[in-house]
Amino acid sequence: MNHELRQTLIDMMQAETHLWQEMTEDGRRYGDATDIFVDLRIKNAEALEQIIKQYGWPGKSLVGKEGANAAFRIARTAIDKPALMQHFLKYIKPAVVAGEALPLHQACLQDCILFNQGQVQEYGLFFDWDESGELVVNVKDRSQANLKRKALGLETIEEALQKHKQELQQESGVQPQDFKQHRRQAEEWARRVGWISS
Fold first, then answer.
1. Contact criterion met (CB below 8 Å) for 113 and 92
2. Would you tell me which of 26, 37, 38, 72 could form a disulfide with 105, CB atoms 3.0–4.6 Å apart?
3. Tell me, what's the pLDDT at 173?
4. Is residue 25 part of a domain?
5. If you average pLDDT over residues 73-84, what whole number do you get?
6. CA distance 131 to 19
7. 96 and 3 in a common domain
8. At which of 101, 135, 160 does a domain end?
9. Is residue 54 part of a domain?
């Protein structure tokens, strides 16, 4: 095991976690992400890209379970770099087949990409608000998505929605006051960073 690389990945992930917690506590989490958080996500994503160039996907044999989980979490938050997130998905797929990464990690990256592209998700892992102020999930067939979630050891979409609602209440997260503005801002961001074409 590469202990130095393992610690590097964990430190990168923890830096994001600590900043996210600060943003949650001071109320910035549910507004626009601050520049410093975006910069940190990009910095970590680019660092992970360099690690992959040198070692391939940092799986359990190379960096241990904790290091591999940190690598996934860094890849998962690379939403400001669509090409990089798709690059990470390409590399994590064979790692899953080899038992070096978890199927859940691949599913999460895949659904995150589809969510940000405005496409139908396979597992229904990402939620958004609808016009009535309710949390919804974009899947083609909820029962099929629930079967796939079960295979990953996850709760149903219905249970996950309820859990997320409770988390939002505890963290003072609220639905957008203006749904059209929320949707417009989301689409503008997706175009700006490259998830959808203009």
1. no
2. 72
3. 58
4. yes
5. 96
6. 30
7. yes
8. 101
9. yes
As a whole number, mean pLDDT of residues 63-79 equals 97
DSSP 119-140: PPBSS---EEE-TTS-EEE-BS
Look over the chain and give the mean of its residue pLDDT values, rounded to a whole number: 91
Burial class (CB in 10 A: 0-12, 13-18, 19+), 83: exposed
Encode burial over 26-60: b for 16+ CB neighbours within 10 A, e otherwise: eeebeeebeeebeebbbebbeebbebbeeeebbbb
Residue partners of 179: CB distance under 8 A and separation at least 6: 129, 130, 131, 133
In a domain, 86, yes or no: yes
Q: What percent of the chain is modeled with pLDDT above 90?
A: 74
Same domain, yes or no: 86 and 142: no
Total number of domains constituting the chain:
2
Q: Specify whether 82 is located in the same domain as 27.
A: yes
Establish if 110 belongs to a structural domain: no
Mean pLDDT of 28-33: 55
Nearest to 51 by CA among 79, 73, 77, 71: 71
Task: Give the 3-state secondary structure of residue 171.
Answer: coil
- Predicted confidence band at 174 (pLDDT cuts at 50, 70, 90)? low
